[in-house]
Amino acid sequence: MGSQGQADNFFEGAGFDWESYIVHRPAPTPEFYQLIYDHHRAHGGEFNLAHDIGTGPGNIAEQIGKTFKHVHASEPSAYHTSVAEHRLKAIDPHKYTTQQCRGEDISSEAAGHKEGSVDLITVAQCIPLMNVPQAISGFAHLLKPTTGTLAIWFYGRPCFADPAQQQSQRIINAILSKAWDRVRPMKGTGFEPAKTMLCAFLDNVAFPSEQWQHVRRLKWNADKPMMFLENDDVDFEIRWESAVGEGEVEE
């Protein structure tokens, strides 16, 4: 998960079934990971060291470990870090290392690996909860110059493709609205910029040209909302923001 504080206590508790959570939540397909690896390889990337940010229970780190020699998994929540460590050490105690650390702080040598040493950084489902400019700058410092790759992704709410299933969609939307009652009001909290980012399909995440090159922004099902709530379910004005830079590829 992202920055500690906004995400605390969402999945905590001794009785929480992490294996069931991992099995039943949406998971990237092998083809999705291959897109990342192909881009990485095409720009001279090596497959030695990967760093999974906001690792949660380590489910993404586990998959990346099938391709990279070593995976470092960091997570701001002490509880989630302990879960990831337990799971990943059971898979391979030598391949995986874990650390409690905010994603924004990873560029500090004390918080992980040395600057310019990481081949791939993955940031799954947590960038909206971070101080984005600080995090993006930190990622740039940690990655290997010119050959390092940053992969950020996020999926939205369940959407029914069949128009005949609109009643089912309304039910899903009502369930999500009720679930988010626990964090209302959102206006003026960290959830306001997070929801704004999802409304923009992460297009308001800036990649300064002096630090980043070969930026690609890929979208699937862009006609469907990424935000988990309907616009009427939030207590602030939804606005569209874009930081897409000149020369960036949008697909």
Short key terms for the protein model shown above:
single chain; 251 residues; alpha/beta; 5-stranded parallel sheet; two-stranded parallel sheet; 7 strands; globular; disordered N terminus
Structural features, described:
It is built from seven helices and seven strands; from the N terminus they run H-H-E-H-E-H-E-E-H-E-H-H-E-E. Helix 5 links the parallel strand 4 and strand 5 (about 150-155). It has about 250 residues and is an alpha/beta fold.
Estimate percent helicity. Answer: 25-40%
- As residue ranges, the low-confidence spans are 1-10
Radius of gyration: 18 Å
Strand order of the largest sheet: 3-2-1-4-5
Query: What is the CA–CA distance across the termini?
Result: 27 Å
User: Mean pLDDT, nearest integer?
Assistant: 88
Provide a count of the helices.
7
- General shape: globular
Number of strands: 7
Element-by-element helix/strand order? HHEHEHEEHEHHEE
Strand content: 5-15%
Largest sheet: 5 strands, parallel
Structural class: alpha/beta
SSE topology sketch:
Layout lengths: L17 H7 L5 H13 L6 E5 L5 H6 L5 E6 L2 H14 L4 E5 L19 E5 L7 H11 L6 E5 L12 H14 L11 H9 L16 E2 L31 E2 L1
Parallel strand pairs: 1-2, 1-4, 2-3, 4-5, 6-7
Give a concise summary.
It contains seven helices and seven strands. The chain has 251 residues and is α/β, with parallel strands linked by helices.
